[in-house]
What we know:
The protein has 10 helices and 20 strands. It has about 325 residues and is an alpha+beta fold. The chain has 2 domains: about 1-145 and about 290-324, Double-stranded beta-helix (4-Layer Sandwich), CATH 3.60.130.10; about 145-285, Double-stranded beta-helix (4-Layer Sandwich), CATH 3.60.130.10. The strands form 5 sheets. Strands 1-2-3-17-7-20-5-4 form an 8-stranded mixed beta sheet. A 4-stranded antiparallel beta sheet has the order 6-18-9-16. The protein has a 4-stranded antiparallel beta sheet with strand order 11-12-10-15. The chain is globular.
Amino acid sequence: xxxxxxxxxxxxxxxxxxxxxxxxxxxxxxxxxxxxxxxxxxxxxxxxxxxxxxxxxxxxxxxxxxxxxxxxxxxxxxxxxxxxxxxxxxxxxxxxxxxxxxxxxxxxxxxxxxxxxxxxxxxxxxxxxxxxxxxxxxxxxxxxxxxxxxxxxxxxxxxxxxxxxxxxxxxxxxxxxxxxxxxxxxxxxxxxxxxxxxxxxxxxxxxxxxxxxxxxxxxxxxxxxxxxxxxxxxxxxxxxxxxxxxxxxxxxxxxxxxxxxxxxxxxxxxxxxxxxxxxxxxxxxxxxxxxxxxxxxxxxxxxxxxxxxxxxxxxxxxxxxxxx
Length: 324
């Protein structure tokens, strides 16, 4: 082990980015080159650092591209995951590599742990900056351990007791169609998936539309470190997260029960918007943000670290891979 650690020091520079209680380890090469040129050292450094920091930024290496990202992430021994039961529009780029969420560039995407609105999520998520935006477009991160610690204990207990119910409506032309979310146009396959994943479902409009409900965790204990983290998307799915003008326009078209997505407590009682504002404020006060540089690669422990997206101008291409 000492020989490996010394070899890491020989080829990599290490520094720490820190802001608002969230930290990320930054690794850069002492001599310009590709990730393949120091792959054993990078793998050892990333695997050692992720449980401590929650995230690692690789900066200053040669560009990977989509194919290189797939190959590099695959060397860590976990298969790349498909984006099943997704909640946002993405495009498959290559094998296990996807585009990041394809929302309009002027929209902010709040902090979240990937697929924490389900009972099954990626262990790790990798972001690669293929093209950096002219302005903005950061992928802020926030330590989920710190978020948990900063939330009011009474709020945490209330969520832990009741959990979170996610209500989603598909096929009404307002959000993703169910065929895209479930990757099939066969209703039987959708129903099998829902039963296997403890998702309640009902078909509406003679099967043209679908509504699902799933009760999930509000917090989680990390399987390796044993630390408790805040782990849900109650604030992100809730109708109060929409810009006021968008919310008002939607509610003029459909009743609240037909909104594309919404959240309540696990027993079906409403979540007060003020509580969710409190959660959003804690995320904002815990975020670490840095500007992307082309060829940057960020590896996140998806349980320990949340992520989001800042608005941007100009062309931006950030690719995503998920493992575990």
